[in-house]
Design a protein that fits this description.
Layout lengths: L2 H19 L8 E5 L5 H9 L4 E4 L2 H11 L5 E4 L8 H7 L2 E5 L2 H10 L7 E6 L13 H12 L4 E7 L8 H21 L8 E3 L6 H6 L4 E4 L1 H4 L5
Parallel strand pairs: 1-2, 1-8, 2-3, 3-4, 4-5, 5-6, 6-7
Helix pairs in contact: 2-3, 4-5, 6-7
The structure holds pyridoxal-5'-phosphate.
């Protein structure tokens, strides 16, 4: 079996096994392939293996790839740091943005979202380990931000996203994901019924099992699908 196909089968098997142990329905888990640094052909191969959601971090690279892969029915997720001067093209070319952490970015995305595409799905990025070097909201800022973003006409606030520090061992990997899950619950208690968050974007190649145990709904997997990145 070619590598990408085999890797996807292996990741899907891990997801199945973890979902079973966690008593979760695997159909509630979206496997997103993180295709940053990969060529369009790799995306096509993954798409023919049943992957329909792809994550990209760098706008220019993503736009070229989206154009190259276009005839395939793929959904594109923006998962990189987002500056104001990039919001228009993101609003026009992606279905999801996982990295909203400033009100100004959210306002621009809402204003620039073409009506014909429907609402843009967004997650608030939370700096769950409170690392000075990382972007994302502090947990205590997330509720206020959620209230604001939930009111924006062309955005649909779906949930929270985090990139915790790398940890080894299932128990310690679960800690930051548990915090994110509890934060989502806390925010949901404050939001109207029509606005409840349904998404936890968490879990990468090394910690999808821990994320599944703690309620992840979108798993962002790069390396274990496409191989090591040379950066
Ligand atoms: C690169 C990246 C991933 C994928 O990480 P892997 O360890 O290669 O699976 C997931 N999420 C974000 C935000 C990334 O930048």
């Amino acid at each position: 079996m070619p590598t990408i196909e085999k890797n996807i089968a292996d990741v899907k098997a891990r997801i199945q096994a973890a979902a079973q142990l966690a008593d979760r329905d695997p159909s509630d888990l979206l496997l997103m392939a993180v295709s940053k640094t990969r060529v369009a052909e790799d995306v096509r191969v993954a798409a023919t293996c049943g992957i329909d959601s792809f994550g990209e971090n760098y706008l220019q690279e993503a736009l070229e790839k989206i154009a190259a892969v276009e005839p395939l029915a793929t959904e594109w997720h923006f998962i990189g740091p987002l500056q104001s001067n990039k919001t228009k093209q993101v609003a026009e070319n992606f279905s999801w943005v996982h990295t909203v952490d400033r009100i100004k970015i959210a306002q621009r995305l809402s204003a620039q979202r073409p009506a014909a595409l429907g609402a843009l799905n967004v997650c608030l990025q939370v700096n769950i380990d409170r690392e000075a070097s990382k972007s994302g909201l502090m947990a205590e800022e997330a509720l206020k931000m959620a209230f604001s973003v939930a009111q924006m006409p062309n955005l649909r606030l779906r949930g929270l996203m985090a990139i915790p520090k790398s940890r080894s061992g299932l128990d310690s990997q679960r800690e930051p994901f548990r915090k994110l899950r509890l934060l989502k619950n806390q925010i949901n208690q404050a939001l109207d019924n029509s606005q409840k968050l349904d998404t936890l974007s968490m879990g990468m190649s090394e910690d999808i099992e821990a994320a599944i145990y703690e309620g992840a709904t979108i798993l962002r997997v790069g390396t274990d699908i496409f191989g090591q990145r040379n950066s």
